[in-house]
Amino acid sequence: MTNDVNRVAHADLVRFITSAYHAVGIPAADAEKAAELMAASDISGADGHGVFRLPQYIRRIKAGRLNTRPDIKIIRQAKATALVDGDNGLGSLVVSRAVEEAIALARDNGVGWVGTRNGNHAGAAAVYAAMPLQHDMIGLYFAVGNANHLPPWGGIDMLLSTNPIAVAVPALAEPPLILDMATTVAAYGKVKVAAQQGKTMPEGWMIDRQGNPLTDLNRADDGFLLPIGGYKGAALALMFGLLAGTLNGAAKGADVVDFNKDDTTPTNTGQAICVLDIKAFAEPLAFKRQVDAVIRQLHGSALLPGFDRIRLPGEDRHQRIEERRAHGIPIPPELRAALDKMAADLAIPPLFA
């Protein structure tokens, strides 16, 4: 542990998550792997997708509606593509299996595209898009969100989700460029974190069914999230959902289960990962040097009034990882209380023993 009672060392967080998963019947190796993937969200600052979600996952497991010993397997395969059936297992295990397969396919073919079905919520998209970086590869990740909070543009029936995309591109001396974004102005995880901490939503995240700004978190069910870029964001949500859901035989549209409210219905969550092997297009070292050059050109841009720097995707994430590795991962009091209650229910040591 760190000296700050509000922060926890990364290794201690992984151990705590592993203990919780193991306590509800997940085998030791799977529990540790899933814990590391969950904590990867926390250490990168994706606080709405890390240990914050653990009590919710545990409830679904204890209800017997998530398979603790899934047979995650490839059910269709072509030269550079595959479809993974997650057998209703932990989303992190399903998606990481898909990424591993996509990396292998890209190594053999230059590109690998793998879809998933019968999975579950898997945490922050960037965690999976970034996995190919260590292989000198580029990762693209798409997902169908685990609840519909977005209507088609101009409608009020929530038939679309936040359907995120993440793209990770390696650099050489500079931090990798990593885009991780929902197709809505805010991911619903941010709404849930704000609600747990008793905050109000910023205006512009949600509107009610009359089109008025909605900032009261107690009324979140009375409205819906706003898409990025108006109709363009709603169109992206639709198209990403087709790639990650419909193409894979996973839930899409009205079939999406709101796992924030429903702990018992299988979600059949769909994701897709595309991996590009850089050496199929360019010499990897030269490419990464060119990415460095692009980054430095952008950083050298003259600034508009009111701006102190050029921010590129992945830079803040990189800084948060460095800061949290050194000083620990912050755990707000409200989250600590929820985790303490879960630990007591599971008869495991609390996070802050």
Brief summary of the model shown:
With about 350 residues, the protein is α+β, with helices and mostly antiparallel strands. The chain has helices spanning about 10-25, 30-45, 55-60, 90-110, 125-130, 190-195, 230-245, 285-300, 315-325, 335-345, and strands at about 5-10, 75, 80-85, 110-115, 135-145, 150, 160, 165-170, 175-180, 205-210, 215, 225, 270-275, 330.
User: Would you count the extended β strands for me?
Assistant: 14
Please state the CA-atom Rg, rounded to the nearest Å.
Answer: 20 Å
In percent, how helical is the residue content?
Answer: 25-40%
The largest sheet is:
7 strands, mixed
The proportion of strand residues reads 15-25%
Principal-axes geometry comes out as globular
Helical run tally: 10
In the CATH hierarchy, the third-tier topology of the largest domain is known as Ribosomal Protein S8, Chain: A, domain 1
Cα-to-Cα separation, first versus last residue? 9 Å
**Total domain count:** 2
How confident is the prediction overall: mean pLDDT?
A: 95
CATH architecture designation of the largest domain: 2-Layer Sandwich
Structural class: alpha+beta
Low-confidence stretches: none
What does this structure look like?
The chain has 10 helices and 14 strands. The chain is α+β, with helices and mostly antiparallel strands. It has 2 domains: 1-62 and 329-353, Orthogonal Bundle (Hypothetical Oxidoreductase Yiak, Chain: A, domain 1); 66-184 and 227-299, Ribosomal Protein S8, Chain: A, domain 1 (2-Layer Sandwich). The chain has a 7-stranded mixed beta sheet, with helices on both faces. A 3-stranded antiparallel beta sheet has the order 11-10-12, with no helix packed on it. Strands 1-14 form a two-stranded antiparallel sheet. A hairpin with a 7-residue loop joins strand 8 (165-169) and strand 9. Helix 1 crosses helix 2. The N and C termini lie close together (9 Å).
